[in-house]
Amino acid sequence: MEEGRDYTPEEFEAMFASQEGSNRNEEVEQGEEEEEAGGSKPSGKVSYVWKYYEKVPVPNKPRHFRCVCTVCRDIKKIMKSYAWSIGTGFGSMSRHLRNDHGITASGVGSQTQTQLSGFMSEQAGGGKPFFYSQKNMIDHMATFVNLEELPFTYGESVNLENFNRLALQPSYSHVNRHTLKDRTMAQYKEQKKELIAYFANFDGRVALTSDTWTSKQNNPFMCVTVHWIDNDFFLQKRIIAFDIMEEKHTGYNIYLRLKKTLDKFNLTKKLFSISFDNASANTKCIDYVLQMDDLLLNGDLVHVRCCAHIINLSAQEGLAFLAPLLEPIKTCINWTRNARSMKTQWKTLCDKHGLRNKQWGTDCATRWNSTYKLIKQALRYKNVLTEFYNSHQRDEDAMIDNSMWTIAANVCNLLKPYYNATNVFSLVYEPNVHLVILECLKIVIAFKTAENVEPCLIPIVDDMKTKWVKYFTSFPYIYGVASLLDSCVKQIGLTNSLLFYYEMLDIIDFDVEIYVQKCIDVLRELCKIYAKDKGESSSSSSVTTKSARFDDQLHSILFRRTQSSSSSTSTLATKELDDYLTHGVDTNDTDFNILLWWKARSIQFPLLSKIARDLLVVPASTVASESAFSAGGRVLDDKRSRLAPPTVKMCV
After folding, report:
1. How many C-beta atoms lie closer than 10 Å to residue 412's C-beta?
2. H or E element: which one contains 348?
């Protein structure tokens, strides 16, 4: 039997309609009778192949047919057609069914169901007819195994094979680990190729986060993550490099790695910023990055330090002195977790006070937020913990009293803004660069509050404040410009928040007006760079309404003035920026989404909306890279320690 050309559904219908209906049916029936009588098959037995093929007689050639796959026709694919004559075999047709549709002779009948009576769809209630295909199954299994960070031997599991055959698909066959790995690698290369092509045509700018990490196998890796906002104003993130870095981790070598990655993904001329932690090698790397061409404003906005790292340094400074004050509480919690005899007493006391038997988490010395969570949970159980601890303490001076719980509550209030700010700065798929100054303001307010309510915390707060001021005496301009692009803050909110910020830190020699004006000048220069088609925007009067995003205290700080400073709008370079800043704060939505706000006003403010799309993508921390390292640790566990670097890169 010879394989002919493929047919589209339309071509097949035209070919099929060209035959006379009655003659065609008679010839097909006669051919089947002759096959059963004179062919190799015993009478009464017809091959399973004919359940899935339509036989079309060939004109002027008796006993010759074109056999077209009806499975392909039903799922609207290009249909395979085969030349067949009575008395010949049909190996090509059966191979097509097996390889392309997963249909075999053993899977036909009551033992299998390759075509479901329902439909295949991501949503219930509709879709295209489902046909089981081993090849299609392998593709989806490769995706599943990679997303779930499973070993490639997953497809060889006998238990998985039994489950699929007995409960889902009798035609299922196990997948060799080499096959699964090859298919996963093929998918990775396909997606990488698509991403490179996407960035080649991308008309915006991107932000990078980068960091280095050493695995359990003592292999040094460097990760580069790219962030961008697409044309629909959705924030996207991809890991574009996760490579072993065997050379010395100097600033120049890090720069060479970054430059190579940027060139590979067509991003060299589309870089907006790079977020690093505070390592000296990363700071040195920025010196080389500033020598690159096509950086905005000569690279004044390119370097962004990890705010989460700065918060951690300040919090750890205070916790080092808080340890003696909190030691009795930690000791009591350790008793409930370790001593078997004490666990029974602890459960009895919890029942007595109407609380559930609390299973305490572990306090990690290198994670200050674990201490905050521990104190917060302990405050709810303070009566139980007090009675439990004091019953095992003979020294009255060492017993827990209400004063210790008061200190613990004040410490919790001091660390709460740290915790909230860390969560905000750790956002990956939501913008956070415009929230940096506001979150820092909440932290310095907590400094002043703790000093006023708990005198014993003053030395601790002073140490935390000293470390804080080292990094946040003056904010990088990118944070101020991002705040200006927040329609709930703008110029008046930025000015007042900074005035109150430095007042709380007792800093009197910082000129807020000059800083704010510089941020406006930076935004004006960006407007000049982005200005290709200047559109007119309608001006509006300045109206400041209370925003539900902020509580009463923060709102009173941000909007103490009702008018912008006289020198602000008069010196703006573009009318569009002037209209935006004088429009005032016009939102009162608790679910405010800054990206959707700018998307809805992309016609009113075409230049500013494009600037906002490129600037608001800047991450305030390197959490994206840290998350990649966590994934790398799960992939390179003790059972998969021999994975080659390209395979690790693919899996992460």
Report:
1. 19
2. helix 340-352
Nearest to 520 by CA among 475, 479, 480: 480
Structural element, H or E, at residue 87: none
For the chain, helix, strand, coil in percent to 5 are 55, 10, 35
Encoded tokens for 331: 């000791």
- Tokens at 646, concatenated: 């390209």
Task: Write the pLDDT tens digit of every residue in 101-134.
Answer: 777 776 554 344 445 444 444 454 445 567 788 8
CA–CA dist 555, 492 (Å, integer): 11
Q: Evaluate if residue 519 carries a pLDDT over 80.
A: yes
DSSP code, position 115: B
Residue in this structure with the two tokens 């430095």, named with its chain if needed? 502
Q: Which amino acid does the sequence have at 438?
A: L
User: CA 118 → CA 244, 361, 420, distances in Å?
Assistant: 48, 48, 48
Among 102, 101, 191, smallest CA distance to 146 is for: 191
Task: Evaluate whether 277 touches 305 at the Cβ level (below 8 Å).
Answer: yes
Question: Which element (helix H / strand E) includes 160?
Answer: helix 158-163
Q: What's the sign of the alpha-carbon dihedral 420, 422, 423, 429?
A: positive
Q: How far apart are CA 454 and CA 296, in angstroms?
A: 47
From the list 652, 593, 604, the residue with the least C-alpha distance to 235 is 593
Strands 271-276 and 303-305: parallel
Of 580, 583, 492, 592, which Cα lies nearest the Cα of 548? 592
Give residue-wise pLDDT tens across range 276-323. Answer: 888 889 889 999 999 998 888 888 999 998 888 888 888 888 887 777
Rounded CA separation 385/379 (Å): 9
In contact, 198 and 189? CB cutoff 8 Å: no
> Scanning the structure block, which residue is given the tokens 């090509």?
92
The end-to-end CA distance of the chain, in Å, is 48
3-class DSSP assignment, residue 221: strand
Residue 631 near residue 428 (C-beta atoms within 8 A): no
CA dist 464 and 442 (Å) reads 14
Rounded distance, CA 361 to CA 373, Å?
Answer: 9
- Separation CA 490–CA 581 (nearest Å): 7
